[in-house]
From TrEMBL:
<dbReference type="InterPro" id="IPR009045">
    <property type="entry name" value="Zn_M74/Hedgehog-like"/>
</dbReference>
<dbReference type="InterPro" id="IPR052179">
    <property type="entry name" value="DD-CPase-like"/>
</dbReference>
<dbReference type="Pfam" id="PF02557">
    <property type="entry name" value="VanY"/>
</dbReference>
<dbReference type="InterPro" id="IPR058193">
    <property type="entry name" value="VanY/YodJ_core_dom"/>
</dbReference>
<keyword id="KW-0645">Protease</keyword>
<keyword id="KW-0378">Hydrolase</keyword>
<feature type="domain" description="D-alanyl-D-alanine carboxypeptidase-like core">
    <location>
        <begin position="137"/>
        <end position="264"/>
    </location>
</feature>
<protein>
    <submittedName>
        <fullName>M15 family metallopeptidase</fullName>
        <ecNumber>3.4.17.-</ecNumber>
    </submittedName>
</protein>
<dbReference type="GO" id="GO:0004180">
    <property type="term" value="F:carboxypeptidase activity"/>
</dbReference>
<keyword id="KW-0121">Carboxypeptidase</keyword>
<dbReference type="InterPro" id="IPR003709">
    <property type="entry name" value="VanY-like_core_dom"/>
</dbReference>
């Protein structure tokens, strides 16, 4: 991550200009561009301006922050044919180096991004804990989580905490069980490997609702009044819907309407203002369904 006040180095994805004026893109640039496009298309994200940049309508543009540069359709000389299968998805050409705030890599940071490309460091990290509604969570989120639950109760909404902090050892058992139960491919789409779970930070909470007990940790939780209430009010307590619909290519997970991640109200507000749904997109951090 580039420090504030310093100019990012020339992007490795920028083209080399040939003597005849054509531009040669490195293999890495071609691969990165294809992965970025594939990820954005799969995720259904990206506005018109972004699409124009990526499809070469403005081939000179190099997004700030060192994100993969756009490649012009005409005059492009690829070093070799890129493989079709995506590895990791670079979620956004946003300006990550310009986002000021807490660390995105330190495990205890409220802004830490944990996904299949970015495990916790150390892998067996454990936070300071507090107990809220009978579940362990990171102590830092306890005041906001208590306030959220009280807010919901006042509104007559019966929210419960199904899962909060899960230790490295616990996540190992959860993941192993999911693999045995669902097979590796399905398990990996819903259950993180130990060291890669947001629950291990203590900053993530799985909510349950009173009205539809059968929808616990199921897609149909998204159609409950409790889910509606969370979507309308959780942000004011610093919680973000971490795995939204249509973002699997970015987050690496199918939609989970019950899984909310505390990031603090400041970051929720910034994402809202930027009209960005995921941490990966906002920070320009890689994610997606493939493990690093
Ligand atoms: Zn969860």
């Amino acid at each position: 991550m580039t420090r504030p006040g310093t100019r990012p180095p020339r992007s490795p994805f920028a083209p080399e200009v040939l003597p005849d004026g054509r531009r040669r893109f490195s293999h890495e640039a071609v691969v990165a561009r294809r992965l970025l496009l594939a990820g954005l298309l799969a995720a259904g994200v990206g506005g018109g301006a972004l699409a124009a940049r990526l499809t070469g309508e403005d081939p000179g543009a190099v997004p700030a922050g060192g994100a993969p540069a756009a490649a012009g359709a005409a005059g492009e000389v690829a070093g070799e044919v890129a493989p079709a299968a995506p590895q990791a998805v670079v979620a956004s050409p946003a300006t990550p180096a310009q986002v000021q705030g807490p660390s995105r890599t330190e495990a205890a940071s409220p802004w830490v991004v944990v996904n299949k490309q970015h495990p916790l460091d150390p892998r067996d990290y454990a936070p300071a804990l507090a107990v809220v509604a009978g579940k362990e969570v990171a102590a830092v989120i306890a005041p906001d989580l208590r306030a959220l639950l009280e807010d919901a109760r006042r509104d007559g909404v019966g929210l419960s905490v199904t899962s909060g902090y899960r230790s490295f050892q616990r996540q190992t058992a959860v993941h192993d069980d999911a693999v045995v139960r669902d097979g590796l491919e399905t398990a990996e789409s819903v259950s993180a490997r130990p060291g890669y779970s947001e629950h291990q930070t203590g900053l993530a909470v799985d909510f349950g609702g009173r009205t539809a007990p059968g929808c616990l940790l199921e897609d149909c939780f998204g159609q409950t009044p409790e889910s509606d209430w969370l979507r309308a009010h959780a942000g004011r307590h610093g919680f973000l819907l971490r795995y939204p619909e249509g973002a699997t290519a970015v987050t690496g997970y199918d939609a989970e309407p019950w899984h909310w991640r505390w990031v603090g109200t400041d970051l929720v507000q910034r994402l809202t203002e930027a009209r960005v749904a995921t941490l990966e997109e906002f920070f320009g951090i890689s994610g997606g369904p493939v493990y690093a």
